[in-house]
Amino acid sequence: MQFRLKAFALHLSASVALLTVILGALYLGWYRWPGWYLTGVVHVIGMVAMVDLALGPSLTLIVANPRKPRRALARDIGVIVLVQLAALVYGATTLWLGRPLYYTFSVDRLEIVQASELEPAEIALARAQNPALAPHWYSVPRWIWAPLPDDPEQAAKIAQAAVFGGQDVIEMPRYFKPWDQGLPQLREQLKRVDEMKELYRSERGALRTRMTQLGLAPDQPNALLLWGGGRRLLVIFEPGALHIRAILKP
Q1: How far does the chain reach from its first CA to its final CA, in angstroms?
Q2: In whole angstroms, what is the distance from residue 35 CA to residue 102 CA?
Q3: What is the reported pLDDT for 192?
Q4: Measured distance CA(244)–CA(223) in Å, rounded
Q5: Nearest Cα to Cα of residue 10 among 46, 64, 66
Q6: N or C: which end of the chain has fewer CB within 10 A?
Q7: What is the pTM assigned to this prediction?
Q8: What is the 3-class SS of the chain, one letter each residue?
Q9: How confident is the model at residue 77 (pLDDT cuts 50, 70, 90)?
Q10: How far is it, in rounded angstroms, from Cα 153 to Cα 157?
Q11: Are 233 and 247 in contact (CB under 8 A)?
Q12: Phi first, then psi: what are they for 166, rounded to 5°?
């Protein structure tokens, strides 16, 4: 039994160390709040953790029989490790492709943009026409302004396409502009929490309470919703310079 426990402990320690390095790098680079919540990656991390931290070492505990020939033991553990690595590669690839790249303000809302939402052709155009704000493999999340283009015909075409499920301007980084340039337009869209009909009454009440506890003003037009898939967060801005004061979960 001591041999089995030693093999289990070694396998578990190696799995924890590798998983911590990979997930830690992804979290620190791209998935810090509010990225991990808006992208809904908890289920992916849970699946990878289950395979790498629970299933893998547990199978090693079962197969690590000291009376088994070393060649057979090495083969069995090798198969377990390969399954673990496959799960880890799948999870890391899924997280990498879905990593947040932008938090955008466009027209009247805030939205997250993930790497998987940007087409290669759009990325190439952005690198040629707007290199300062174009995405690269090393890009970390940035807050940007994504206005419709100045050309009315092009703007109308994009708006119409977005209505029918086509590309929206937030998926076209060639049109992105620095965050600060969009603050005058953002100021005009700020609302009071009670004006946000997208939230349930109970959520608005809970947010008002939380804002009061944090010393924020729930009766002032100082907030916008930040959307990611079907999830939303309340972003509260400082009235003057419009610095982000808090991002709250309803």
Answers
A1: 50
A2: 10
A3: 97
A4: 9
A5: 64
A6: N
A7: 0.88
A8: CHHHHHHHHHHHHHHHHHHHHHHHHHHHHHHCCCHHHHHCCHHHHHHHHHHHHHHHHHHHHHHCCCCCCHHHHHHHHHHHHHHHHHHHHHHHHHHHHCCEEEEEEECCEEEEEEHHHCCHHHHHHHHHHCHHHCCCCCCCCEEEECCCCCCHHHHHHHHHHHHCCCCCHHHCHHHCEEHHHHHHHHHHHCECHHHCCCCCHHHHHHHHHHHHHCCCCCCCCCEEEEEECCEEEEEEECCCCCCEEEEECC
A9: confident
A10: 6
A11: yes
A12: -85, -170
Q: The dihedral of CA 156, 161, 167, 171: what is its sign?
A: positive
Evaluate whether 64 touches 104 at the Cβ level (below 8 Å): no
Phi, psi of 221, deg, nearest 5? -75, 90
Both structure tokens of 105: 């303000």
Q: Which two structure tokens, joined as six digits, stand for 112?
A: 């997250």
